[in-house]
Amino acid sequence: MNVSVIIPSYNYAAYLGECLDSVLHQTCQDWEAWIIDDGSTDHTRALALTYQQKDPRIKYYFQENKGLSNARNTGLSLSKGEFIQFLDADDLLSKDKLSLQVAHLRQNPDVSISYCQSWYFASNLPDVCYEDLLLKNNSSHPILNGKEFEILQALIKRNFTTVSSPLTRKSILQEGINFPETVSNSEDWYFWLQCALQGSPFQFLPNALAFTKIRVHEGSMSQQKLQMYYGELQLRHWLTAQINQSSLSQKEKEYLGILNQVKEEKLFEHVMLTGPLWDLTHLKKMYQLSDFLRVCKYHKLARKHQQATFGAN
Q: What's the whole-model pTM score?
């Protein structure tokens, strides 16, 4: 078995058919696709079983709702492929993606993770693609070939790849790497950081025929922005300990630690300055992610900032 495609789905039956069609249309034929139904209450099961009858390479597994990370980890435990392709149920693969990335990894045995271009599209306009999540055509996909320090440096700055862009050797995931089940977002960022900390080499595949398409739902960014910020602050605290425990040189640890600290400080300041000033739930969350004196310091700055900017009381 060449490739295991892992597709977690929670009430995404409206999009799952398009997703599965993109797998069925792959020029690579040696694959299995695991639909991990994470407790859906829509018609996900009926749709999945219809596709399973159409093609036995499509497998269906139902579990009670345990979250996205758990669903992906379940898929990993069931998968039999030499390579792993993660694919969200509302996203799509180009028809040559799997064949080109399998060839890429076979031709480069020292590379563990082959990643490619990600395109973004508004949910109702699948044929109009953009280079970035905000649909502004501001390129956000760096071309990196390396491992450990070089990749970690890029990942500390931001999560530079989407979950469905890479094709990954399953052998590197037998070192205890999985998706964290105690966080509510940024799961794939944790995952790629674990791979990089382990020393897995990443390489970009510069072939225009290999790409993934990420669906952007209307309003999803603005509605989830604060939660995403909380998640990143939590990730950066976790990352500090991971860097210190890594096998990197002391000089590399110090550099990456400072880089991560600077990014965390800038984000903390931004969230305090632009967040809800008197929302106790928000302030409690920021306190949990830092300390009382720091929250007080930035709350004072935030009052001045919002008064000057918006005329807030």
A: 0.93
CA gap 198, 185 in Å, rounded = 22
* pLDDT given for residue 188 in this prediction: 96
Pairing of strands 58-63, 31-38: parallel
Q: Is the pLDDT of residue 311 over 80?
A: no
Predicted pLDDT at 98: 98
Q: Tell me the mean pLDDT in the region 108-131.
A: 92
Q: Are β-strands 113-115 and 202-204 bridged in parallel, bridged antiparallel, or unpaired?
A: parallel
Residue 14: phi and psi, rounded to 5, are -65, -25
Q: Using the 8-state DSSP alphabet, how is residue 55 labeled?
A: -
Amino acid at 296: C
> Residues 203, 155: contact at Cβ < 8 Å?
no
Amino acid sitting at position 149 = F
Provide the angle, in degrees to the nearest 10, between the axes of the packed helices 149-157 and 250-274.
Answer: 10
Which residues 6+ apart lie within 8 Å of 238 measured at CB? 190
pLDDT value of position 132: 80
Q: Is 108 helix (H, G, I), strand (E, B) or coil?
A: coil
Whether the predicted pLDDT of 138 surpasses 80? no
Residue type, 226: L
Q: Which residues pair with 211 in a beta bridge?
A: 117
- The backbone region for 240, taken as left when phi is positive above 0, alpha when psi lies in -120 to 50, beta otherwise, is alpha
Structure tokens at 213: 């398409």
Q: Give residue 107's pLDDT band: very low, low, confident or very high (50, 70, 90).
A: very high
Reported confidence tier of residue 222, pLDDT bands at 50, 70, 90: very low
* Rounded Cα distance, 18 and 20, in Å: 6
The H-or-E segment that residue 150 falls in is helix 149-157
| Amino acid in position 100 | L
Phi/psi at 102 (5° precision): -60, -45
- Write out 71-93 in H/E/C secondary structure: HHHHHHHHCCCCEEEECCCCCEE
User: Which residue shows structure tokens 């425990």?
Assistant: 245
